[in-house]
Amino acid sequence: MAESDTITRNAKSNLAFTLMDLPVEKRVHMAQFYAFCRIVDDIVDEPGMTPEERHAALDRWEDIITMRSEATPGIEEEVQKLVQEVQLDIDPMMELIAGCRGDIAPQQPATRKDLLAYAYKVASCVGITSAHVMGASPAATDYAIALGYALQLVNILRDVAEDCRKYGRFYLPAEDMELFGVSCDDIREQRYNYRLRQLLAYEAALAEKFFGEADEYYQQLSVEDRNALIPAQAMSLIYHTILEKMRDDEYRIYERRYSVNNFRKLWFLLRARLGTVALPSFPSVSEWSFIKTQPKDKDEEQN
After folding, report:
1. Three-class HEC string of the chain
2. How far apart are CA 170 and CA 253, in angstroms?
3. What was the pLDDT predicted at 296?
4. Which pLDDT score, from 0 to 100, does residue 216 have?
5. How many Å apart are CA 122 and CA 142, to the nearest integer?
6. Phi-psi group of 135: left, alpha or beta (phi > 0 → left; psi -120 to 50 → alpha; rest → beta)
7. Homologous superfamily of domain range 3-7+14-275
């Protein structure tokens, strides 16, 4: 088994789950790209490395994807082969590395603009490359960017407590926290109150905005592009459901980590696929006028 397959299987992520819909060759390529993303992220997050070692490991991956260094057998060789075979634009991959590098010595974003600049690097750039690997045309770029923003915002909302506890990171913009009277100490001490709920609802509205934009872009794509992007659209459905669960539960982020079970993931994957099928048109109401129906009373009409 290729190293990328092992990494992807062990990750058990939402994205890895949706890849089962792809043809074999594209599934292999996406596993290779996902493994690259996973490794780069783990370089920053896994314990036991000094900041200097983390930077050096990221430098190594920059050398691998730019072909400045010869790859060792295994995942490095797989990623270089992916870049060459799919003719990837490596700029988004370099942006991802830069975004992860910023988490080695994290700084809280001051504004939403700063937050979205970070989200572009670590999520939208992943979406841009994923769309290419899955076989979509450049027309899908705006969709990939918007969906990347939406997914990253949901991740940030869901992981507020974990990011603070495990890594000392705060991704909610400082000016938004000030607007609602929530401090970093409030999050460290896991103070759950009305102000926190309002803050998270405010950020959730931004995520909803990007889900809406992504859906608009998706509907404008060709059938071929929509078919290629079925895993991405399934991700949209999964993460939008997580957002809805948080909202309906009043953002109890200190008590639970919101997720979707595998049965629902399968259903969303099916829904994403059905969304690309051109259903037959049905006869208009006038064409059924030969069927005589009894008039309904007012109560029936309201029901």
Report:
1. CCHHHHHHHHHCCHHHHHHHHCCHHHHHHHHHHHHHHHHHHHHHHCCCCCHHHHHHHHHHHHHHHCCCCCCCCCHHHHHHHHHHHHCCCCHHHHHHHHHHHCCCCCCCCCCHHHHHHHHHHHHHHHHHHHHHHHCCCHHHHHHHHHHHHHHHHHHHHHCHHHHHHHHCCCCCCHHHHHHCCCCHHHHHCCCCCHHHHHHHHHHHHHHHHHHHHHHHHHHHCCHHHHHHCHHHHHHHHHHHHHHHHHHHCCCCCCCCCCCCCHHHHHHHHHHHHHCCCCCCCCCCHHHHCCCCCCCCCHHHHHC
2. 14
3. 43
4. 97
5. 16
6. left
7. Farnesyl Diphosphate Synthase (1.10.600.10)
Question: What does the block give as tokens for 91?
Answer: 């700029």
In this model, does residue 62 exceed pLDDT 80?
A: yes
Chain centroid to CA 184:
25
Q: Where are the domains of the chain?
A: 3-7+14-275
Q: What is the CA radius of gyration of the chain?
A: 22
Structure token pair of residue 68: 């400045």
How far apart are alpha carbons 51 and 29 in whole angstroms? 31
**What global pTM score does this model have?**
0.88
Give the Cα separation of 218 and 229 in Å (integer): 9
32, 14 in Cβ contact below 8 A? Answer: no
Please answer whether residues 188 and 160 qualify as being in contact, where contact means their C-beta atoms are separated by less than 8 angstroms: no
Work out the end-to-end distance of the chain between its first and last CA atoms, rounded to an integer number of angstroms: 58
pLDDT computed for residue 274 by the predictor: 84
Task: Tell me the two tokens of residue 125.
Answer: 């750039």
Residue 248 to residue 242: CA distance in whole angstroms: 10
Q: Which of 98, 92, 91 is nearest to 58 (CA)?
A: 98
